[in-house]
Amino acid sequence: MTEPSKLPHRGVPEHQPAAGGIAARARAAAGPQYLSGLNPEQREAVETLDGPVLVLAGAGTGKTRVLTTRIAHILSQGRARPHEILSVTFTNKAAREMKLRLGQMLGQAVEGMPWLGTFHSIGGRILRFHAELVQLKSNFTVLDVDDQVRLLKQLLQAESIDDKRWPARMLAGLIDGWKNRGLTPSQVPSGEAAMFGNGKGGKLYASYQERLKILNAADFGDLLLENIRLFRENPDVLRQYQNRFKFILVDEYQDTNVAQYLWLRLLSQAPSRPGVPLSAIIPGAMDPAVIPGRAAGVNPESGDKEDSARDSGFAPAGAPRNDAGNPVAQPSPPKNICCVGDDDQSIYGWRGAEVDNILRFEHDFPGAKVIRLERNYRSTGHILAAASHLIAHNEGRLGKTLRTEDVDGEKVTVTGSWDSEEEARAIGEEIEELQRAGENLNEVAILVRASFQMREFEDRFVTLGLPYRVIGGPRFYERAEIRDALAYLRVINSPADDLAFERIVNVPKRGLGDATVQLLHDHARKRRMPLFEAARAVVETDELKPKARGSLRDLILQFDRWRAQREVTAHTELAEIVLDESGYTEMWQKDRSADAASRLDNLKELVRSMEEFENLQGFLEHISLVMDRDGGAEDEAVSLMTLHSAKGLEFDNVFLPGWEEGLFPSQRTLDEQGRAGLEEERRLAHVGLTRARRRAKLYFATNRRIHGTWSTTIPSRFLDELPSANVEITESKGGSGWGGAGGYGPSRFDNVESFGSSYATPGWQRAQANRNRGQAGRSGQARGGFEEGQSSFSGSRSDAFSGGGFSRNKRGPLVIEGELVAKSTGTVSEFSLDDRVFHQKFGYGHVVKIDGNKLTIAFEKAGEKKVVDSFVERV
DNA sequence: TTCTAGTTCGTTTTT
DNA sequence: CGAACTAGAA
C-alpha cells in the first residue's frame, strides 16, 4: 500500500483533504486542490489538454473522476468557458452523474454546461436549432420504437408486402442498424437493402424518411444521422460548432457506433478556413482502405457495383472520395478531443457499437496521446486476477494490465447446482448469511446474462421475504400508460401527429376500431391532410356508422376544447384535465389487474415531472430523450439485473449465476457472430467479475429449463479460463428446503473435480465428456413437470405424474406429488372472490377470479398469477 | 368491435 | 412454460 490515502474496498478515493495525510497535502501543494489525490496517470490524463487523447481506463480505475476533473481543470485554467466544452455520454444517468460530480468539484451548480449530455440529446438540441435545414420544424417529435413500427407497418401495407414474412420490427431493426452505421437511404449498399421485402428494403427506408419529414418527426437514429447530414450539407453551420467547441470529451468511447464516430469526427476537426470546401474534411474521417467494415458508409455515391467488394470487407483501395466525387484533401489536424473508454468493456457490439473505434483511435486521430489507467481501486487481488486472466483470452484488445494494491481477499468461488432452482436457493441462502454477518443488502447484486433468469430469483426472494429490486426493465417512458398519456398531449400540441392520434383514438375503447381508422387513413391520404383533420371531415359525412361517428365527433370536440384550454391553463393542470375527461384515468381505475394501481401512480408521476418544464412544448421536446425510470427505492435491497445494465456499477458482493455453455456464452451470439461474439461474451464476463469489490461468486447449474423444456447443460468455458490459483470450488448449499436428500447425481461432483485440474484443456472438449454424463443423470429430469402451479393443469400431465417419473425423484417429498394429483381432479372451489389467501411461493394476495379449482390471485408482491386452490390457504 | 381461445417463439438495450 | 400475438365467434 503505497497510496496512503486509498480506502480499501472503496471506489476511487474521494479526497477530503483532512483524510489525506501528509502525502496528500504535499501533492495538494503541487497543484490545484482538485488535482490532489490523482495518481500520476490520472493526472496526466487530466492535464494533457492539447491534441487528441485516448484514456484507456480499465474497470475501477477512476474513469469518471478523470473526466470530471479534466473539465474542472479546463475551466479553472481558463482554457475554455463552460459553453465551449462538448462532453458526451451514452446514458442520461452518466450525464447526470457527471453534472453532479462536477457541481461538487466546482462548488456550484453546473447550469452553465449546456453541452454536457448524451449523444442523442445534444444531437437533438443542435438539430432543433437548424431543423429547417433538414426539412423539419424545430418542434419536431422524437418517435419511440412503437411509433416507428406502426409507421413502418403502414408503409409495408402500402407496398403490399406480407408483414408476416417481413415483420415491421425487423425493418425497424435494419433501418436502425443503417442509421447506426451512418447510412442514409441512398448510401445503403444495394445488396443489403434488397435483402428485405423482395428487394424493397431500400425503397422502404427512403419512404420512411419521407414520411418522417411529413410527420415532422425524427427517430433516435435521426438525431445523429440528420445531424451529420446537416453538417455535411451546411459547412457554415458545422464551422460554427467547430469554432464553439474548444474541447470535446467522450465517455465510454468503446461503445460509439459509426454515426457517433462520424459526428465526433466532424466536430473535432479544427475549424476550416472559410472557403475551404467541406469535402476537405469529411471523407478523411473514414478511409475505406483501412476500415473495411466502414467502407459502406464512406463512398456513398461510389456505385452499386462495388457492393460485393464492400460486403466482403475488401473495398477498393482507391483514393477516398466525398459525396461530390472530388478527391480528398488532407484533413486538418484534429483538435482537443479526449476519449475515455475500455475496450475490454465493449459489450454493445450487437447494437452497432464499433470496438474498432477505440482500437483505431491512434490511426483516426494522428498524434494522439494514449494514457492507460491500470490501477484498480475497486476489487481485491483474487477478483482482479481472475478477471484479468479471463479477459486475456481475448485477442482483439489493446491490452491493459489491471493491478491493485489491495489485499488478496477471498477467492472467487465457483459453485455447481443441480438445477436453476437450486441455484436460486443456494444464492438466497448465501445472501441471508451475508445479511446475518452484517452486510448491507445494497451491497449485494445478482447479475444475470438474460432477463428470464431473473424470475427464479424473484420467486425465491418473495418466499424468503428478502427485499430485492430489479434494475433495468422497461423504462418509465416506455410504459404503455405513459406513452398513451404522452400521445394525448402530442395530439393537443401538434394536430398533425398522426402516430399519436392513432395510438389513442380508441384508448380507452370508444368503438373506433380498425375499420374506422382505415377509413380515416384513406381520407387523409386522398386529401393529403393529417388524420385529425380527416376525422373532422369524415364526421360531417355519413360514411361512418352512427355510433362510431358520434364518439369520433365527441373526441374531436374534446380535443378542440383542450386546445382552447391550453391557452389559459397551466400545462400540468391541462394534463390532469385531459387524462380525466378522456376517460383514460377511469379506464385504469376500473381495471382489476394487479398493476393498475402502479400505472395510476406512474401517471401522477408523469404529471409531477411536467412541473420541471415551462410549458407543454418544452416538456414534449425533452421527454422522450431525458425521461428516466423512476429513481426511488431507498430501502435496503438486493439488486437484480442483467450484466449489461450492471456496467458502471459496483458492489461488495456480486453473484453471477448461470455460467453454462449456451447461456453464457450465449449460443445465439456464438452462432451469429462467431469468434467476435465469443470475445464480446467474454468481455461481458469480465465486466461481471469486475463489478465486485470483495466477493465474486460464480454458479453453474447442470439442468436448466430453456423455452419450457429441461435440458442438461455444461459449465461455461469461461470457468475453465479462470486461473485456478484465484478460484475456489465450493459445495452448493442449496439442498435444504427439500427435506434432506439434497444430493446431486455423481455427475455434478465429477464436474467439479475435473474443473480444477483441467482448466487448461479446451473447454468444449471437456464439455463433450460432460454431456454424456449429463445424459446419464437425466432420469431426474421429470422434475420439470413437477413444478407447482397452473402448468399442471394444462394437459395430459396426470399421466406423466402417475407414470412414475416421480417416485424416482429423490428431491421432492412425495406428499406434494400425491396432493397435487389428488386435488387436481377436484371441481368445486372452497374459495370465493376477494378471499385473502397465502401462497408458499408468492405470499399474500386476494382472489380475483375463480375457475373450478384454478384461482386467479392478485398477489401483493408477485402480481397476478393463476394458481391451483390447493396451493393457497385462506387467511 | 371486442373478447377469447389458439398459436408461436423465445438474448443482451440507450436513446 | 408463458408472454405476446393472431384468427375466429359473439
Automatic annotation (TrEMBL):
Pfam families: PcrA_UvrD_tudor (PF21196), UvrD-helicase (PF00580), UvrD_C (PF13361). The keyword Isomerase applies. InterPro entries: DNA_helicase_UvrD-like_C, DNA_helicase_UvrD/REP, P-loop_NTPase, UvrD-like_ATP-bd. GO terms for cellular component: cytosol; DNA helicase complex. It comes from the Bacteria. ATP binds at A57, G58, A59, G60, T61, G62, K63, T64. Residues 36-380 form the UvrD-like helicase ATP-binding domain. Residues 769-781, 788-801 have a biased composition (Low complexity). Keywords: ATP-binding, Helicase, Hydrolase, Isomerase, Nucleotide-binding. Residues 1-21, 292-336, 766-805 are annotated as: Disordered. One of its GO terms (biological process) is recombinational repair. It catalyses: Couples ATP hydrolysis with the unwinding of duplex DNA by translocating in the 3'-5' direction; ATP + H2O = ADP + phosphate + H(+). One of its GO terms (molecular function) is 3'-5' DNA helicase activity. Residues 381-648 form the UvrD-like helicase C-terminal domain. Its EC number is 5.6.2.4. The keyword Hydrolase applies. Belongs to the helicase family. UvrD subfamily. Has both ATPase and helicase activities. Unwinds DNA duplexes with 3' to 5' polarity with respect to the bound strand and initiates unwinding most effectively when a single-stranded region is present. Involved in the post-incision events of nucleotide excision repair and methyl-directed mismatch repair. This is DNA 3'-5' helicase. It comes from Bradyrhizobium valentinum.
